[in-house]
Amino acid sequence: MTTFVSGEQETADLLAAMFPGTDASAELARVTDWSATKLGDPHGWPEELRTAIRTVLPSKVPMLLWWGPDLVQIYNEAYRHLLGSKHPQAMGQPAAECWQEVWDELGPLTADVFHGAQATYAEELLLFLDRHGYTEETYWTFSYSPIRDADGSVLGVFVATTDMSKPVIETRRLDTVHALAVVSSAELGSPQEVCDQAMQIMSSNRRALPYAALYLRDEHGTGDLVLTSCYGVEPSARALPERIPAASEHPFRQVATQRRKKFVSFGPEDDLRAEPGPLGPVRPNSAMVLPVRTGHAPAVAGVLVLGANPYRQLDDSYGNFLDLITRQVATLLADAAATQHERGRAAALADLDTSKTRFFQNVSHEFRTPLTIAMSATRELREQHLDPALVDHVDAVERAVGRLNRLVDALLEFARAEAGTLVPVVEALDAAAYTRELVSMFRSALESAGLALELDVAEVGTTWLDREAWAKVVVNLVSNAFKFTDSGSVSVALRREADELELTVSDTGCGIPPEEHEHVFERFRQVSRESRPGVPGAGIGLALVADLVRAHGGTVTVASALGRGSTFTVRLPVGTPATGQRPAPTHPAPAALPELSLAGLLDRPDAQAPPAATTTSARSAAGAAPSTGTGVGRLLLVEDHADLRGYLTRLLTSDRWEVTAVGDVASALAAPEVPDLVLSDIMLPGQSGLDLVRMARQDPRMTHVPIILLSARAGSEAAAEGLAAGADDYVVKPFEPVELLSRLRVHHQLAQQRAAALGQAENRADTLELALLTGRRIGMAMGILMARHGVTSDAAFDLLRQHSANHNIKLREVAEEVLLTGELPA
Question: What CA–CA distance (Å, rounded) separates 133 from 507?
């Protein structure tokens, strides 16, 4: 039990009344021997001091009193947490002694209050304090206000202060992370440029990152770490070597090998040549070394050396910041590598595209001579008196040559479009008259097929167009409509709206599936139209139309519905004459029609073609010589091209095969009798010859039947594909008839000798997909929240996900808002 004399008890009662409360600061104030301070006996304290104490002490805001000329300190509990190790001796201590390390900055401000009797204000003032055992970078926003007596004399200073160190430093760190996050690796040419750009950004915040160095693995595969970029430090033999061998025991090599970050302190013997940071003369002598991972590869891409600020403690917040910096650098390097790969791939594709265009040009031109010879030969043969059987052969040759000639023309136009040389040569043209003449070529063919031709061509006056290009546009669209229309009509309309021509070609045909609309005008792509099997084509016609229309500055579109037909609409500017060209006459003469072979142009499977399925014998085949002896066997021929189907039928029947000829896989599978041998083309409408092989091998009736494939694709890979599907042989077009017949007989004889059907095994491999990395923006937003709230990556992701669910906002949009503002949206 403590015993007080009357004077001591009176002082204790006075201090209890003056410093009420149970917090540590109030208790400290009550037990402080104030008589030993410059304030003296508390009984003699002026009423102004007692009033100020009653104002400051209970406040929850950090507050401090400096009283008298010696600025003796009295502070509340909220302020105690700002003092660090200066508490408890700071209570009753003169301010100049407590804050001696920063009194050169604070003393003049205090003097201004005493001598000028004016309040002062400082915002985010940088002060280097010693309150945690080291010189610390801190930032303060505070105000010094004078406390006056009745006469106006200044008795003390009221200090309201806020420690802004954490928000100032973390904001600066987040700015650095954000600056790295918005760098576009697509704009940088190489990983070296990415490293230099990252270093430039980090060097703008040398307060947090006084120096940095990035090591990457040697590109030549030695495993060495090579210093790629740095700032604020110079290479040295021990601390920062320019190359670290794979077998070295250097700490940086250990980080790369163990894939774990490591804090490294450098001594004088390490010769770390780091520059002083912007905060002060102390040279940074430590760093956090972190592995740089750019994917799922087991080996790291390199290590990042991040110098530690000697004026800040390396706490969790600082460590999270360094982790974020490393993650952003790794992302940039990964993106740069991917971009570099894509650029190389794009360059290779461009070279390939150029080579392809040159190939089309060369091959197309080389075709001209043999085509000319073939055309001349057919014309001369027609002048001879030929047997009817030979006339059929000449007709087939003429149709084939005509189609090949059109393909060559289309390839040349395609090559010109690819090379950017498809420039229209315009001339004065009566587009209405010319269009009527072009469409009229189709009238007899359409009527023979039971189709109506509806022509609605208005007078459009003189236009300036490329005559040949316009002819190709009209003819390709009308022939395309005819090929895919079984019944109904084909309609052609031409109108002029202001300075624009509008051509529409409509049909009542099979239509185009909705998912194929966007692919209609792609080169070498044929839209699937299962209701019109057997229609030949190379996928060039509509693509050529689109190229020609674009060359005129126009557009072409399609509207179609399955089973109801299609409408193609071309819109072209009417054009203007070239410089120096005379205007056209008011009623110009119709332009000459292009030289076209209509029979070959239409490419209808039912135009001058044999029936879709015919069964012939050796004695009934057209043009086949009578045969003697028994037949070889039943042969199923699957070929969609009418002329080739007819030719093969005649060839096979002449060799005593009983032939059933069909044009598609469905008809082949529906054949009433199981054949002894199947000869099938690979490229068929709908299901291919390979599909036929696979389905036949699954049918118990067909497992033993030899299947020989025909294809225009040459090479070992194409043959391997056919044989792998289960075919017995593979014959490339064009073929020697004797060789084909010999192969068929050999396979038929071998099949007769087999005791059981051969089985096939299919090897299947499961393909594993690598897990996708978290989206880059979501990852960056997680990093910002980790630094802002000092949480783990899982907790940061939960914050994003919860905000997304609570506000019904997509997770990606929440992440983008965090990137812009640095915080979750309100």
Answer: 90
CA 578 to chain centre: 43
Is the pLDDT assigned to residue 755 strictly greater than 60?
no
Q: Which two tokens stand for residue 644?
A: 């080739």
124 within 8 A of 164, measured Cβ to Cβ: yes
Q: Of 472, 599, 607, which is closest to residue 541 (Cα–Cα)? A: 472
Residue 354 pLDDT greater than 90, yes or no: no
Model pLDDT for residues 403-430, shown as the tens digit of each residue = 777 777 766 666 666 666 677 888 898 9
Given a contact cutoff of 8 angstroms between Cβ atoms, the answer to whether 493 and 444 are in contact is no
Residue 129 sits in a domain of what CATH number?
A: 3.30.450.20
456 domain-assigned: yes
The sign of the dihedral angle between the CA atoms of 349, 352, 358, 361 is negative
Is residue 76 a contact partner of residue 59, using CB atoms and an 8 Å limit?
yes
Neighbour count for residue 522 (Cβ, 10 Å): 14
Shared domain check, 589 and 483 = yes
Query: How far, CA to CA in Å, does 603 sit from each of 147, 466, 483, 532, 734?
Result: 105, 26, 7, 12, 21
**pLDDT at residue 307 is higher than 80:** yes
Mean pLDDT, residues 762-771 taken together: 32
CA distance 707 to 719: 13
Least confident of 308-312, 601-605, 676-680, 691-695: 601-605
| Residue 717 in tokens | 């890979």
Say if residue 96 is exposed, middle or buried (CB neighbours under 10 Å; 0-12, 13-18, 19+): middle
pLDDT digits (tens, 9 = 90+) for 359-410: 765 665 566 657 666 776 777 787 777 887 788 788 888 777 777 777 777 6
Whether residue 69 is preceded by a cis peptide bond, meaning omega within 30 degrees of 0, is: no
The verdict on residue 360 lying in a domain is no
Contacts of 516 (CB under 8 A, 6+ apart): 527, 528
Could you tell me which residues are beta bridge partners of residue 657?
A: 633
- Which residues fall within 8 angstroms of residue 614, CB to CB, at 6 or more apart? 649, 660, 661
What pairs with residue 719 in β-bridges? none
Task: Read off the tokens for 597.
Answer: 């072979």
* 495 pLDDT above the threshold of 90: yes
Q: How many domains does the structure of the chain reveal?
A: 5
Contact between 63 and 73 under an 8 Å Cβ cutoff? The reply is no
pLDDT value of residue 524: 62
- Judging by beta carbons within 10 Å of its beta carbon (0-12, 13-18, 19+), is residue 770 exposed, middle or buried? exposed
pLDDT tens sequence across 252-273: 999 999 999 999 999 999 999 9
536 found inside a domain: yes
Place of tokens 């930032």: 139
CA distance 583 to 462: 9
What is the token pair recorded at 781? 């937003």
DSSP secondary structure letters along 510-573: S---GGGGGGTTSTT-PPP-TTSTT----S-HHHHHHHHHHHTT-EEEEEEETTTEEEEEEEEE
Give the tokens for residue 630: 């028994």
User: Max CA-CA distance within the chain?
Assistant: 152
Q: What is the domain extent for residue 221? A: 170-344
**Mean pLDDT, range 696-706, rounded to an integer:** 88
Mean pLDDT: which of 116-125, 501-510, 529-538 is highest?
A: 501-510
